[in-house]
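fyi for ur records
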Amino acid sequence: MTSPAVIPIVALDVPDRAGAEAVVRGLGEACGFYKVGLELFSAEGPGIVSWLRELGKEVFVDLKLHDIPNTVQGAARSVARHGASLLTVHASGGRDMIAAAVDGARAGRPDGGCGILGVTILTSMDAAGVESAWGRTGVTVQDEVLRLAGLVAEGQGAGIVCSGHEAAAVRSAFGDRLGLLIPGIRLPGGETHDQRRVMTPAAAAEAGARWLILGRAVTGAANPVAALAEVHRSLAGMA
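which gave:
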């Protein structure tokens, strides 16, 4: 059975703080964990993370860092200092870059409260898209996810970001060593939007997810609080 500790994270996929405030105000106490992505972070800077922390919220900062190790280390340190609980880097940056990010996060939050997650294959991509981008043929998404997950484990990352369709294979290969953050979560019958590999909350939890990213499935719902409550009910049924 799936652990009841699966944590839903609501994505603040909005262009500015005003949009973020509207989402957070609308969800109130129903949500305690938010994702700040590249658009919002670029518009508002790390202050948006500090603001959420002042409200008592945990924050996943999804910047997908990919640079030389020293630069990534400094960026991770800065983000962690503002109170981030999770931060993403691209797993394709390699073991040394991932390890540098881990060191930076530990320096920024000596309590160990900022975990580094390696992004494997974006849920907007399928095998053909990976082949085109990387100039390779015969690509299997699952094999690539497992290969990249190995780099994250070697770099002492806390976990990976992958689609729910690869989660079971990762759990089989790495057990609890890597926490799995699953984006592309949709409620039953919901739209897939721009993501190709999507999954329901219950299915992702059954596959071994530790964290779920909920975007338009909640924020675009007629009643976001009710939509998030539906997610919690489905996860409670997995316990």
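The chain has one domain: 7-236. thats all i got for now
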